[in-house]
Amino acid sequence: MKRYFDIATVLAFLLLVSACGNRSLGSKIDDQFIASEVVKAVERAHPDLPGPTSHIVVSSYNGVVLLGGQTPRAELKALAERAARGVRGISKLHNELEVAPPTTSLVRGNDALLTSNIKAQLLADSRVASTKIKVITENGVVFLLGIVTHQQASDALAVVQNAAGVQKIVKLFQYLD
Questions:
Q1: Does residue 1 belong to any structural domain of this protein?
Q2: Which positions fall inside the BON domain (predicted)?
Q3: Tens digits of per-residue pLDDT, 103-159?
Q4: How many structural domains comprise the chain?
Q5: Considering 31, 64, 99, which residue would you say is the last residue of a domain?
Q6: CA distance 69 to 162
Q7: In this structure, are strands 168-175 and 141-148 parallel, antiparallel, or unpaired?
Q8: For 149, which DSSP code?
Q9: What percent of the chain has pLDDT over 90?
């Protein structure tokens, strides 16, 4: 009985969250599956990709997939991209992997704080459609994904540019206009 209650609770939460933004619940679920399948495909591509020599981050928003993080060799970056491209449901793939050693836990912690700070600033700015924007930070590089108008993108960009600690901003938006 508890299991059914847990499932019902998760479904209710997903329905509540799906009311935010402009994507359907189905699209959000598809993105979760796409990201999971990309992670599996990348990990199977080469033993060094899931290992301690690489740090791979995968995110999907409306079928747009971001490969981020670090891997020590250009051939591994290419293998990761090739593996990701083999996953169904991807409309566009952005391979933003750096050929570099993986970041430290301190850098990743700073990235998490920066992402939280940016999300809070986006939420606080009434001009920004914050529920339509996904923020991911890797090694000080802020990636912005979402389905927005050009004006919404500009408003979000203005907020992110003022955040302390941002090294670079990469816009991966899909535009409505």
A1: no
A2: 30-101, 110-177
A3: 999 999 999 999 999 999 999 999 998 999 999 999 999 999 999 999 999 999 999
A4: 2
A5: 99
A6: 23
A7: parallel
A8: -
A9: 81
